[in-house]
């Protein structure tokens, strides 16, 4: 434990993520990187509601084996109250812990400033940090930080490609979209079009979230511009044209591209190489008996949005594919079809619950990743050099799929275009039959097939990801520049000011 005098000299950063594991884990990774960048000089605290604290603690525990500075690197957890929400029992505070049809209750509470701001404001003022890092969903924290005279950084757990798409698509009049599809405006690179059914709900409903109104920016954009800067979990060489376009857009005052945050910091990576060990688990042991690049890994994130009928078809499709597979299922009420486990035998492994995804993707036996196209999963696949088969379901996942398949070309759609309707709405999901799944998986994994070509491309990006995080790399430099800018802003007494 550091002395009180030593701790008082530390740069104290308070990070406030949204109520989803897909946000909390990268926020925790970000906190870890911040303290490891300046061991002994930075102390980070991740602030969550009580039921979300275990998510932070689990993420920190997974970092301990490779921590490079022991007690000098401090990430702490603080809690604030979650509001009472009609229809949710006490202690249900994470979108990953409820049924898909109930997740909107948590989201509605989180997006309600009148409900959320008082508790967060009390926490920030009581903590008296030197800087605040806020989730984009809680952009009002920029104003709270400004009142305290401390800098605020907006942190985006997603990439720049989907962010630009989400911020520019509101300019499109969906009602007049030709052929039921829209093309993302003012986008570098290839034209990207999506059916309206594959757009996030707020865009389908033409809600004014990020929209410009007669030349006057809405409050979200105005608050965003008061922030010291905008940090994103990506790296420049992954999406260079889009990063440049984002910098030139004027959306933010300064951009910091600091990922992939799932990779260990420089000092921690060195510690892992010299003395650390990979975590042990039954699935890693199972992978150890499989040939290189032979296994398909399937996981659909912390917000699985798949019907039990679709899970049945997926199970039967994997059985028929003849390909070894490791499948993570987070639907506790579902059971595989009768006799399925016996027929599959040791060729497949079913994991119900948590699995060490980063370690799984790094395993040489894994040859492909069937993913929902959450940004965290895509970035982890890139870092590990694993090609992907895409199966998006909700939110901006269909947009990210276009990045994977049309921009960086590190994978293919599991269900070919034109094979059936896909949608961001559960009730509009069309069942993908077992035969189509088996055919797609088997074809992708065949020797000399699409997976081999995609693997060569993703291997190049993997090397660039690690170079970005290494000392002197672009993400390493941006992380240190961010800390320098926070220190300078704090020393000048300037918090978040208008650009």
TrEMBL record:
EC number: 2.4.1.-
Pfam families: UDPGT
GO molecular function: UDP-glucosyltransferase activity
Keyword Zinc: no
Name of the protein: Glycosyltransferase
Principal EC category: transferase
Domain of life: Eukaryota
Regions that span the bilayer: none
Database matches in InterPro entries: UDP_glucos_trans, UDP_glycos_trans_CS
Organism name: Panicum miliaceum (Proso millet)
Coiled coil: none
Keyword Mitochondrion: no
Assigned keywords, A-Z: Glycosyltransferase, Transferase
Family: Belongs to the UDP-glycosyltransferase family.
């Amino acid at each position: 434990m550091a002395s009180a005098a030593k701790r008082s000299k530390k740069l104290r950063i308070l990070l406030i993520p949204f109520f989803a594991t897909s946000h909390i884990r990268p926020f925790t990774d970000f906190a870890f990187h911040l303290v490891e960048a300046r061991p002994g000089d930075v102390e980070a605290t991740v602030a969550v509601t009580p039921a979300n604290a275990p998510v932070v603690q689990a993420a920190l525990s997974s970092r301990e084996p490779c921590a490079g500075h022991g007690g000098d690197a401090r990430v702490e957890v603080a809690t604030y109250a979650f509001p009472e929400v009609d229809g949710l029992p006490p202690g249900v505070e994470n979108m990953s812990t409820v049924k898909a049809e109930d997740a909107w209750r948590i989201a509605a509470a989180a997006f309600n400033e009148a409900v959320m701001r008082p508790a967060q404001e009390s926490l920030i003022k009581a903590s008296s940090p030197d800087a605040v890092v806020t989730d984009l969903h809680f952009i009002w924290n920029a104003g709270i930080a400004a009142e305290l005279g401390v800098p605020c950084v907006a942190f985006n757990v997603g990439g720049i490609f989907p962010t630009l798409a989400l911020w520019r698509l509101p300019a499109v009049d969906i009602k007049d979209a030709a052929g039921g599809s829209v093309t993302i405006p003012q986008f570098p690179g290839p034209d990207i079009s999506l059916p309206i059914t594959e757009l996030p709900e707020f865009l389908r409903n033409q809600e004014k979230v990020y929209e410009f109104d007669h030349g006057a920016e809405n409050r979200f954009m105005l608050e965003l511009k008061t922030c010291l800067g905008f940090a994103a979990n990506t790296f420049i060489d992954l999406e260079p044209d889009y990063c440049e376009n984002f910098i030139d857009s004027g959306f933010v005052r300064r951009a910091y591209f600091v990922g992939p945050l799932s990779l260990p910091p420089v000092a921690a990576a060195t510690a892992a190489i010299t003395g650390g060990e990979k975590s042990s688990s039954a699935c890693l042991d199972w992978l150890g008996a499989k040939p290189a690049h032979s296994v398909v890994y399937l996981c659909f994130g912390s917000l699985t949005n798949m019907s039990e009928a679709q899970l049945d078809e997926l199970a039967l499709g994997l059985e028929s594919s003849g390909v070894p597979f490791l499948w993570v299922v987070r639907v506790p009420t579902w059971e595989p079809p009768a006799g399925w486990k016996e027929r599959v035998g040791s060729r497949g492994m079913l994991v119900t619950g948590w699995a060490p995804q980063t370690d799984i993707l790094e395993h040489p036996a894994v040859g492909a990743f069937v993913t929902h196209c959450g940004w965290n999963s895509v970035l982890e696949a890139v870092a590990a050099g694993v090609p992907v088969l895409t199966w998006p379901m909700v939110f901006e996942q269909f947009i990210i799929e276009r990045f994977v398949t049309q921009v960086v070309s590190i994978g293919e759609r599991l269900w070919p275009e034109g094979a059936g309707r896909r949608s961001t709405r559960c009730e509009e999901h069309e069942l993908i039959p077992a035969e189509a799944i088996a055919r797609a998986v088997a074809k992708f994994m065949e020797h000399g097939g699409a997976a081999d070509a995609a693997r060569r491309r993703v291997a190049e990006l993997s090397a660039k990801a690690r170079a970005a995080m290494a000392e002197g790399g672009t993400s390493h430099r941006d992380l240190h520049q961010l800390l320098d800018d926070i220190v300078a802003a704090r020393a000048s007494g300037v918090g978040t000011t208008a650009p």
